[in-house]
Amino acid sequence: MFDHVCTECRKRQLVFPSQVTSLVNTDAGIVVTHTCWCGASQTWLTGKAVAERVTPTLAA
Hints:
Strand order of the largest sheet: 3-4-5
Structural class: mainly beta
Order of helices and strands: EEEEEH
Strand content: over 45%
């Protein structure tokens, strides 16, 4: 389970495994496709490859 903000209904909701429609490993990361509670198809890019591209901002 993970949370996601839908691009259609703009609500932040929990996404359960039963809502996931596909998982695809790519060079860019893992593409997770799921269906929001409102019925909209959503895509999320995650994984180690994505985390390595994110540069943390350090505060002084």
